[in-house]
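Below is how a single chain appears once it has passed through the pipeline. First comes the sequence as given, then the structure the pipeline wrote out for it. We keep one example in the README because the format questions we get most often are answered faster by looking than by reading.
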Amino acid sequence: MRFTAVLIMIAGLAGAAHAADDPAHAKTLIEQHKAIAAAHLAAAQCLASGKSEEACHQELNKTCKQLPIIGPLCGMRKHRH
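Resulting structure:
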């Protein structure tokens, strides 16, 4: 179990090192994360405005289709609010 955790940490550090070594890759990742964060913030604001979860998820789905992200909710799994 500990060995697996160590391997996972090493793999994570290697991925972070790759992003640090390649400024273009790092810039792409940063922009993708910003776009996902903006989509999630818009979904939160939609819910805060009183719209239904279904309506807000439909809006989020439309936004996420425009992004190079896997999944209709930009990586956000179905969860309770």
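Helices lie at 2-21, 23-48, 53-65.

See the next section for the split statistics.
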